[in-house]
Amino acid sequence: MAETVRLKPFFRPERDTDPRVGPERYVAGFEDMTGVPWGVSVPLAPHAVEATVLGGIAFSVAMAADGTLRVEADGRSDAANEAIAVARPAGQGAIDCVVESTLDPVFLDLDPETRQELETLRHRLRRALALVDGVLGEPDS
Predict the structure, then answer these.
(1) CA-CA distance, 41 to 30, in Å (whole number)?
(2) 31 within 8 A of 38, measured Cβ to Cβ
(3) Residue 80 to residue 50: CA distance in whole angstroms
(4) Is pLDDT of 110 > 80?
(5) In the chain, pLDDT over 90 holds for what percent of residues?
(6) Of residues 89 and 27, which shows the higher confidence score?
(7) What mean pLDDT do residues 39-56 have?
(8) In which domain of life is the source organism classified (predicted)?
(9) Which helix (H) or strand (E) element contains residue 116?
(10) Rg for the chain (alpha carbons), in Å?
(11) What is the rounded distance in angstroms from the CA atom of residue 74 to the CA atom of residue 112?
């Protein structure tokens, strides 16, 4: 008598990878309900997968009222953005921590162009603080 096996498609990184580096390869195929692959598993290069998956998505940065910045996928569901937040908690951070990491001397070369960029940052931060003070009803700092 023939046995019926229910298969479901799978798509995942080939093996556990460092999330800071990403997978060396993705694998797609079919597996049974216990997770055992059946038939041919197809290896896929990361650049092709990532370009296809991410190519049609626009990302933006959103900020909560407490100054926490997070990356969001525009035009995607709340569930998709929650999945991004869970998968990449490092994809969000407090505004002061982001500024602090930007000013890390190891990465900061204080040439004339960088100095101008820092002047622009100072101007934007002052403007942002004035906007917050306006909402809170406090005088400009």
Answers:
(1) 7
(2) yes
(3) 16
(4) no
(5) 25
(6) 27
(7) 85
(8) Bacteria
(9) helix 112-136
(10) 23
(11) 35
b/e burial code for range 22-59 (CB count within 10 A of at least 16 → b)? ebeebbebebeeeeeeeeeeeebebeebeeeeeeeeee
Look at residues 96, 102, 129 and name the one whose alpha carbon lies nearest to residue 114: 102
Between CA 22 and CA 88 the distance in angstroms is 12
Write the pLDDT tens digit of every residue in 59-95: 888 898 999 888 888 887 788 778 777 776 666 788 9
Contacts within 8 Å (CB) and 24+ apart, 8-14: 8/32, 8/33, 10/35, 10/37, 14/43
Question: How far, in Å, CA of 61 to CA of 80, rounded?
Answer: 15
What DSSP string describes 39-84?
Answer: EEEEEE-HHHHHHHHHHT--EEEEE-TTSEEEEEETT--HHHHHHH
Query: With contact defined as beta carbons under 8 Å apart, do 63 and 69 qualify?
Result: yes
Residue 57: partners with Cβ closer than 8 Å, 6 or more residues away: 73, 74, 75, 76
Average pLDDT over residues 131-136: 93
The total of other beta-carbon atoms located within 10 Å of residue 20's CB is: 6
